[in-house]
Write a structure and sequence with these properties.
570 residues; 30 helices; 4 strands
Length: 570
């Protein structure tokens, strides 16, 4: 089955025309199911079912993204870091003691899903997980709109998001990063909490308040950066619960308690698991303390933030024709807030706060990382949909006025994206699917593969997490890269001592010194190599012997294993 699917994609890869035609046919199908009536009717209309719509959205995402999904190369070091964490979780059955830097356990745990199906945790499977999470995020936003508007209108309102996520050629949007999982949790929480209320603002589904709280509780432990959005959601919906003046106070307190209980349950569960693993203090140092240190060292001045976002939106392919036209459409709708349908108008403060909080969480780390732009996408799409859905469904408008608004919405928020994608150069990864598999395993991994045994572990000095992915070996230490041991900070000594303790407690079979030309960030061996730190050099000299050097990476093997496998020296 897998080989048959691969052969289909190889056929599509043999010429950009095949890719181009199938991709645009897929998108045209989404466009048709979005714009034409979906209510039960005669002939073909009866087939325009919501399930068909969701399936076609998924196919459109696959049709445009598969050349990048199938590329067996690292797009971003963060991608390899998360995959390494998932590999370690799966093979060593440790979850809460892994140090993923600024991402929490709920960010990398979804990457273990392919392993549950017997598949490797690599770039292909990781990007498939990213695609499914992106698709699920779109579906939950559509379901949220569908709660307030007709199905056909909900499909139109989510079209700008479908266009962006389908057309994008940005590696940062296709790879699995620390943004997809919190956005997914956020979209589920938003849908659960909004649909817990009826159109009069009264709670009718208490269970959804509880489940919404559970997903809010996952946000701080997926990425600390999105914690403000979780707090915002909790405060807003607690306020919405207590605004039910027609309900007795005791009932409102019980409803609020369900929301709070859901959040505290997930927060308590995660913290308890970390504490039970004996890693609570380590987690505090790695995740909280270093997160604040990271945010305190800014790469740009505050005055440079908006120009930087403008520039980044051009760098991340497809963001510019989405972000700025939709922002302009929102700005143009602001003077007409009073004309928004009354039942929907109460969502505008939430949409506005989420929109502003998105800018805050992108600004907070002080970095110019293109994948941070993902945090703009859902809040912008939500506020845009609330505004125009509320204006279009205003009962005081004539049919022609509604058609005019729909036309304006599509012309500003959808047409520029279609034009941008249609007029651009062809997908650069088309035609490379076959060769990408050949380069998926590099010289270092090829050296290690014949020597590996079940249960082996690997530690990399430097920032080259791709070796964990290529070899499928779990980490021998808590972290997959050693930035915090190499770069001076107030906590450097703590991380160095912890690293040494991990190396002494369970010495990994293989040790790689990935310092040299061609490696990410750390290239000067005279400054950053492991033997510049005397304590680590002593450990390596005592337990390891260098067996080779490939790609400016020194390869070491533990001496006791080397005695069992002397062929490693040949």
């Amino acid at each position: 089955m897998t080989d048959a699917i691969y052969q289909v994609f190889l056929w599509l890869d043999d010429g950009w025309e095949r890719f181009w035609i199938t991709a645009w046919i897929s998108f045209a199908a989404v466009l048709i199911t979005s714009l034409l009536p979906c209510a039960a009717g005669t002939h073909w209309r009866r087939w325009n079912h919501p399930a068909l719509y969701c399936t076609l959205v998924l196919l459109a995402l696959v049709a445009f993204r598969w050349p990048m999904i199938g590329a067996g190369i690292e797009f971003n070091p963060d991608e390899s870091q998360l995959l390494a964490g998932a590999i370690t979780t799966w093979h060593r059955h440790v979850i809460w003691s892994i140090d993923m830097g600024y991402c929490g356990p709920w960010a990398f745990l979804p990457l273990t899903l392919p392993a549950m199906l017997g598949l490797p945790i690599d770039y292909l499977s990781g990007r498939c997980v990213a695609l499914l999470m992106t698709w699920s995020t779109i579906v939950f936003l559509w379901l949220t709109f569908r709660h307030f508007f007709a199905d056909r209108l909900a499909r139109m309102l989510v079209l700008p998001l479908v266009c962006l996520m389908s057309f994008t050629r940005s590696e940062d949007f296709v790879q699995y990063s620390g943004e997809q999982s919190p956005l997914f949790y956020f979209s589920v929480a938003l849908w659960l909490l909004l649909t817990a209320f009826d159109d009069k603002g009264l709670v009718v589904r208490v269970a959804r308040l509880f489940l919404g709280g559970v997903f809010i509780g996952m946000l701080p432990f997926s990425k600390l950066q999105v914690a403000p959005i979780g707090v915002l959601l909790a405060v807003f919906f607690l306020a919405a619960i207590f605004r039910q003046q027609s309900q007795p106070l005791a009932k409102r307190v019980r409803q609020a308690a369900w929301l709070v209980a859901g959040a505290l349950l997930m927060l308590g569960f995660t913290i308890s698991c970390i504490a039970a693993s004996g890693s609570l203090f380590h987690f505090y140092k790695s995740y909280l303390v270093m997160g604040l240190v990271y945010a305190g060292i800014r790469a740009y001045e505050n005055s440079e933030f908006l120009p930087l976002i403008w520039q980044l939106s051009k760098t991340a392919w497809g963001v510019f024709p989405f972000l700025w036209p939709t922002t302009a459409a929102i700005a143009l709708a602001l003077p007409f807030t009073a004309l928004v349908k009354v039942e929907v108008r109460r969502l505008l403060p939430l949409g506005g706060l989420l929109f502003l909080s998105a800018y805050f969480i992108v600004w907070a780390p002080g970095r110019d990382s293109p994948h941070y732009l993902l945090f703009f996408i859902i809040p912008t799409a939500f506020l845009l949909g609330v505004f125009y859905g509320g204006l279009i469904t205003n009962t005081h408008r004539s049919a022609w006025q509604r058609r005019g608004l729909i036309g304006f919405f599509l012309a500003v928020c959808v047409v520029p994206q279609i034009y941008s994608c249609y007029s651009a150069d062809t997908q650069p990864y088309v035609g490379n699917l076959g060769s990408s598999r050949e380069y998926a395993i590099g010289p270092v991994a090829k050296t290690l593969l014949p020597l590996m045994r079940e249960g082996d572990t690997l530690t990399v000095w430097g920032w080259a997490c791709t070796y964990y992915v290529q070899t499928q070996l779990p980490q021998g230490t808590r972290e997959s890269h050693t930035e915090r041991q190499i770069v001076f900070s107030p906590e450097q000594e703590y991380f160095r001592m912890r690293f040494l303790a991990d190396m002494e407690r369970e010495p990994p079979v293989f040790f790689l010194d990935a310092i040299g030309e061609g490696h990410f960030r750390f290239t000067d061996r005279n400054v950053f190599a492991h033997d510049r730190w005397t304590a680590l050099q002593t450990v390596i000299n005592r337990h390891y012997q260098q067996i080779d050097e490939k790609e400016n990476t020194r390869i070491y093997m533990r001496r006791d294993r080397l005695a069992e496998q002397p062929e490693a020296l040949k």
